[in-house]
Amino acid sequence: FVVVLCTKSDSEKLTLALNACAVAASEGETVVLVLMGDGVNTFLRKGNNKEEPSSTSFRVEETFIGEPFKPCNALLQKFIGSGNGVVLGCASCIKSRGFEFGSD
Fold first, then answer.
1. pLDDT confidence of 104, banded at 50, 70, 90?
2. I need a labelling partner for 80 at 20 to 30 A (CA). Which of 10, 19, 25, 31 fits?
3. 65 with 37: CB under 8 angstroms?
4. Name one Pfam family in it (predicted).
């Protein structure tokens, strides 16, 4: 099961992608979330000043569109915690934005 996230500006798409990953992984499916293009921005750590969160740039740590969905950070934890989820980021997309692996 592969989910590709290519946007940073749509909180609903971010939530739906993570929700699909979390549900499938918790049901035993092997799931890969691939971050491409602006999708890599959604995983920037809180406090990173290379691009501040805004109404056009959402972060997993801070995004919650409301019930019945869970906050994106909780969905990510469920996804990764299942043992069936992997997150891959496009190295070229990360580098072209001036981000650092593991520190941003």
1. low
2. 10
3. no
4. DsrE
End-to-end CA distance of the chain: 27
CB 40, CB 99: distance < 8 Å: yes
Query: Which alpha helices (DSSP H) does the chain contain, by range?
Result: 11-26, 72-81, 91-96
Domain-embedded: residue 58? yes
- Please report the pLDDT score of residue 103 as a whole number: 62
How many domains, the chain? 1
Could you count the other beta carbons within 10 Å of the beta carbon of residue 51? 16
pLDDT tens per residue, range 37-78: 999 999 888 777 777 677 778 889 999 999 999 999 999 999
Tally of CB atoms within 10 A around 38: 19
- pLDDT value at residue 101: 73
Q: Could you tell me the residue range of the domain that residue 75 belongs to?
A: 13-29+40-83
At 31, which amino acid appears?
A: V
